[in-house]
Design goal:
Layout (H helix, E strand, L loop, with lengths): L3 E8 L3 H4 L10 E8 L10 H5 L3 E5 L5 H11 L4 E6 L2 E2 L2 H13 L5 E7 L14 E2 L14 E4 L22 H11 L4 E11 L12 H29 L7 H17 L3
Helix pairs in contact: 6-7
Length: 266
């Protein structure tokens, strides 16, 4: 049986919520809680996280959600790694969906699944048919808690310039992670099966109200297409914005994201 490890990332006092993610012990399922203490002391850690033998706790003082996810990925030991947060909820059948998919596609390194909202409805419109990364429909995007990875030395880490808590870029880390995995030759596919329930909303939907999200869009495009290709795409995108949105301001913010990536190239 493939073992499944749920990688729960949390920060500060939110570690109290991490205990609510756990299901009663299940064969082949374990949990890794990656905690950024953010000045908190061990007293805020729920006792259950120390008592259960299927739970491990690791820490990091590095800043940002991407750094936290990398801490979890580096410490992970399961065959299959389910990226999670402290406000996700699971059912045993969700874990079975994951196992069945990886048994059906033994060549798959990463599978992107579906997420449900707090009412048990699909978070957004998903394809009803499976597809590979190379065949993905336009406007397909990934959220972290929809992603399950087969543990491998070839698996990339998240780019810590992107994501919540990073200095300039509020989102885009999942797209960069998946694209880098594909560039390394990992097999990626989508399977139309739910694996998580959450009330989270993706940061990327805040383009109209957040300069950090707009910078992230420019930065992601720069990473994917280079500065010239990104600039053209940002200009085209800005010109198509509704009249109620500041087109010039949006373009400037996206351009700042492009410049940030150009200046901080790895």
């Amino acid at each position: 049986m493939l073992t499944l490890e749920v990688l729960i990332c949390t920060i500060g006092r939110r570690i109290g919520q991490a205990a609510d993610v756990l299901l009663p012990p299940l064969e082949g399922v374990s949990y890794l809680v990656s905690w950024q203490p953010n000045g908190e002391v061990d007293g805020v850690i729920p006792p259950i996280l120390r008592q259960r033998t299927d739970v491990r706790l690791v820490r990091t003082d590095r800043r940002g959600l991407s750094a936290n996810r990398n801490n979890a990925l580096t410490a992970a030991q399961g065959d299959l790694l389910l990226i999670s947060d402290d406000d996700t909820r699971y059912r045993p059948e969700y874990f079975e969906n994951i196992r069945q998919a990886f048994e059906m596609y033994p060549e798959a390194d990463i599978i992107h699944f579906q997420a449900l909202n707090e009412n048990g409805k699909l978070m957004r419109r998903y394809s009803s048919a499976p597809f590979t990364y190379e065949q993905q429909p336009r406007r397909t995007f990934f959220s972290s808690w929809e992603i399950v990875c087969r543990r491998s030395e070839r698996l990339p880490l998240f780019d810590e310039r992107f994501g919540l808590g990073s200095p300039r870029l509020a989102c885009g880390e999942e797209e960069i992670f998946i694209h880098e995995a594909a560039r390394r030759g990992l097999a990626i596919r989508y399977e139309p099966a739910p694996i998580v329930q959450t009330n989270s909303h993706t940061t990327g939907t805040l383009f109209a109200t957040s300069a950090a999200v707009r910078r992230s869009k420019g930065a992601v495009l720069c990473w994917l297409y280079g500065p010239f290709g990104a600039t053209l795409r940002c200009l085209k995108f800005a010109l198509k914005l509704p009249h109620g949105q500041a087109r010039i301001k949006s373009f400037i913010d996206m351009w700042q994201g492009i410049r940030y990536i150009m200046k901080s190239r790895k």
